[in-house]
Amino acid sequence: AKVPFCAAWYSMLIPKKTRLLVYKHLFMEGVMCAKDAPNAPKHHELDVPNLHVCKLMQSLASRGLVNKQYSWRWFYWYLTNEGVAYLREFLGTLPENVLPKTHMKAAARPNPTGRPFGGERGERPGGFGGERREGGFGRGRDGRDSYRSGPREGGFGRGGAGKEGGAPGGDVQPAFRGGGRGGFGRGRE
Description:
Strand order of the largest sheet: 1-3-2
Radius of gyration: 34 Å
Number of helices: 3
Helix content: 10-25%
Strand content: 5-15%
Structural class: alpha+beta
């Protein structure tokens, strides 16, 4: 039995306009993501079919030009250094100083004081030197110190030693069955 010839069986014809649009977006951003929905009519960022994006990225991944990651029904493709060189050549004359966003170094912002938020200590609102906020869930005007006011009558728990429902007194000696020989499920002799 001879299998009928079908061009879409092993390759897919994608218009050059679509290929250029996807490659330009990939070069500018450095990353491409697509939902794992091949029948989706459009890609979520580009005005091209989602299947075309997935197949173009699959082709680049097979040549080692992008790295593929899959998470929660989304594909993520990251451009490699070889991919940057390939797309630079494919898209035409792009200067060497033009890089994808993921390959650019973050510009350091000047901070003359050396402090993360600038200024002197205590100038942050609500910070260690700022004013304390009052109230909140379960707190009155005392703030959180109302429950730390010191020992209450009765000590720990819901009552004191010897009171009904409270912690036992200091002369209680717990006794366990088995005389210290075994644990749960060992049976009796």
